[in-house]
């Protein structure tokens, strides 16, 4: 029956097969192939020529090519024999063999049109053939539309391979499949990125970038570039690690990528701190310190970033210390001490619970700016004081008075030395407003003119002609002025002014202090003189 059908088909196509009649009669598969082509509305008489090589018609191509015959029959069996597939296979011997390996020698029928020749060609070009213990790949993709779509994507991007198919796609590795689609959607899919997503960490990176709205060729290239730099330095890719860490957070924000992608110091610091928080566990748990809350804190505050890195460097970072440095003043204090090389576990214990961190920090900065270096012991002692401004004020006053005494002694001004000594004894027991008055009194003593031709009213602050004791103590006195926020006009009045009898002055005149000292000495059992007599001040220098 098939011989007659094939015979009629060839006659209808006006093909002369007289010399091959016996061949046709004795070859059932040749007959079936001719019938299959005819049923698929493929012209049997059309020449098959490519680059000056070919056959005058389909029968000539089939008659002595058993592989092509098998391919035609196989394509028909899976519902994929048509003009397009015939055009794709007729002169391609190697492709014909690969197609047979994809479909199999005895293919199971498939509904016409459920599989396209493109699907078959993709599998053939990638060398994806039947494996022991697995269903033929053609039927595998036919039963799984998602797998088929993914294979098509890989084929279009020249990325389909046996390894990708059998190791990742057929087992239904969803994060691998999702990564392929995400890369394809952003135009980032190529053989290199496909190789990368075989690694679960890289797949996680892809989905993380997508969640941040940052998946692109540019972002992947920047990560790759950082990785190459890190490899050259012999270090791990912290950029890659930081992004992957963010992927564990539940709610990523659009600005997360911008926060860590830069090559500036702040971005690099954020990446470093992210890794620190992920690697540090909360006390008594296996949970990392990295949470949405801590990430927002790090992202918003470079000060917090620096504080976390410093605490980690001294093994002080924990959930408790992390909560402490939510206070920006404490973080600033910590960083400042670290820059001055004075931060230590002992200093941290001293400052972490202080009630007046801003005042403590302002006081320390004032001391440093005046040239007074603090030891760790002094910092711990200062941190134990409830009123840090008063404590710093006393330190600066004593420093100023010591300098005044040294300079006055060199000038052989004994009275000035004595007054300064008594004022120093008084300072130890003072606080608040009385300390501020001592600041004015100290400035008044220091600015006492040392030469007969000098007039207090003509003294000019900053001039090299200021009295030597004032110049000696000037840095500490200026620090005191700033510490107590004394306005310039008031300070100038303290140095150059004369008190009015109808007003209470902010300072005590030198002569009043000298007279009070004399009066105190004339009494038996005299104690430390009170040099800052209140009331109407005597006019004097």
From TrEMBL:
Compositional bias of kind Basic residues: 449-459
Organism of derivation: Piscirickettsia salmonis
Span list, region Disordered: 446-469, 515-541
Ranges of biased composition (kind: Polar residues): 525-541
Entry protein name: Uncharacterized protein
């Amino acid at each position: 029956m098939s011989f007659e059908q094939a015979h009629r088909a060839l006659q209808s196509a006006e093909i002369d097969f007289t010399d091959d009649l016996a061949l046709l009669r004795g070859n059932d598969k040749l007959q079936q192939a001719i019938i299959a082509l005819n049923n698929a509305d493929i012209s049997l008489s059309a020449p098959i020529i490519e680059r000056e090589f070919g056959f005058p018609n389909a029968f000539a191509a089939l008659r002595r090519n058993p592989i092509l015959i098998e391919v035609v029959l196989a394509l028909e069996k899976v519902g994929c024999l048509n003009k397009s597939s015939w055009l794709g296979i007729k002169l391609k011997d190697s492709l014909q063999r690969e197609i047979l390996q994809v479909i199999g020698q005895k293919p199971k029928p498939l509904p016409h049109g459920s599989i396209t020749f493109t699907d078959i060609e993709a599998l053939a070009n990638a060398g994806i053939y039947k494996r022991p213990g697995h269903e033929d790949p053609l039927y595998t993709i036919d039963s799984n539309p998602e797998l088929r779509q993914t294979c098509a994507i890989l084929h279009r991007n020249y990325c389909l391979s046996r390894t990708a198919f059998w190791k990742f796609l057929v087992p239904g590795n969803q994060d691998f499949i999702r990564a392929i689609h995400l890369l394809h959607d952003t135009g980032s899919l190529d053989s290199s990125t496909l190789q990368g997503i075989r690694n679960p960490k890289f797949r996680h990176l892809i989905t993380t970038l997508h969640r941040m709205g940052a998946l692109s060729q540019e972002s992947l290239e920047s990560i790759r570039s950082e990785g190459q730099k890190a490899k050259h330095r012999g270090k791990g890719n912290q950029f890659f690690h930081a992004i992957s860490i963010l992927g564990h957070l539940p709610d990523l924000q659009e600005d997360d990528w911008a926060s860590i992608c830069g090559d500036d110091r702040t971005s690099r610091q954020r990446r470093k701190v992210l890794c620190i928080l992920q690697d540090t566990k909360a006390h008594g748990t296996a949970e990392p310190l990295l949470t949405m809350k801590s990430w927002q804190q790090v992202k918003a505050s470079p000060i917090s970033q620096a504080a976390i890195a410093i605490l980690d460097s001294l093994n002080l970072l924990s959930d408790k210390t992390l909560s402490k440095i939510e206070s920006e003043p404490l973080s600033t204090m910590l960083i400042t001490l670290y820059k001055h090389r004075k931060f230590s576990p002992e200093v941290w214990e001293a400052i972490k619970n202080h009630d007046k961190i801003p005042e403590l920090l302002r006081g320390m900065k004032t001391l440093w700016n005046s040239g007074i270096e603090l030891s760790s012991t002094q910092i711990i002692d200062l941190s134990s004081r409830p009123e840090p401004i008063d404590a710093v004020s006393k330190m600066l006053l004593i420093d100023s008075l010591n300098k005044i005494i040294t300079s006055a002694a060199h000038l052989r001004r004994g009275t000035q030395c004595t007054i300064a000594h008594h004022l120093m004894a008084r300072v130890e027991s003072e606080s608040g407003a009385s300390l501020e008055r001592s600041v004015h009194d100290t400035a008044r003593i220091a600015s006492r003119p040392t030469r007969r031709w000098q007039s207090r009213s003509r003294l000019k602050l900053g001039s090299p002609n200021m009295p030597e004791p004032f110049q000696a103590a000037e840095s500490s006195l200026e620090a005191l002025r700033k510490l107590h926020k004394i306005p310039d006009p008031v300070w100038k009045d303290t140095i150059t002014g004369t008190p009015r009898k109808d007003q209470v002055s902010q300072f005590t005149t030198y002569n009043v202090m000298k007279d009070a000292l004399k009066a105190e000495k004339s009494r038996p059992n005299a104690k430390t003189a009170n040099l800052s007599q209140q009331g109407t001040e005597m006019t004097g220098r």
